[in-house]
Specification:
Helix content: under 10%
Radius of gyration: 12 Å
Oligomer: single chain
Strand order of the largest sheet: 1-6-4-5
Largest sheet: 4 strands, mixed
Distance between the termini: 18 Å
Strand content: 25-35%
Number of domains: 1
Order of helices and strands: EEEEEE
Shape: globular
Number of helices: 0
C-alpha cells in the first residue's frame, strides 16, 4: 500500500540544517511538542546544510494527538 505524505510548504527555522532557501529538505519530519504548540522534532542544528537537495520534505509522523491535521 502506497502512502502519501503531506508536503512541507515552507520552513522559517533558518538554523535548521535541513532548511535551504526556506524549504525543508529532510526526507520526512516528525511533528511533536506540547498540544498548544506543535513543532518539528526533526530539527537539527549543524554548520553544514543537509538533506535531499532535489526534493521537498514531507510529514512522516505526527505525535500531537489533538492536532486538527492528525487523522
Amino acid at each position: 500500500m502506497a502512502m502519501k505524505m503531506s508536503k512541507i510548504t515552507a520552513c522559517d527555522v533558518k538554523e535548521c540544517s535541513y532548511n535551504q532557501k526556506m524549504q525543508c529538505h529532510a526526507l520526512a519530519i516528525t511533528v511533536g511538542g506540547p498540544e498548544t504548540c506543535a513543532c518539528c522534532d526533526t530539527y537539527l542544528h549543524a554548520d553544514k546544510k543537509g538533506g535531499v537537495a532535489d526534493m521537498t520534505g514531507g510529514v512522516g509522523a505526527c505525535k500531537v494527538e489533538k492536532c486538527s491535521y492528525n487523522a
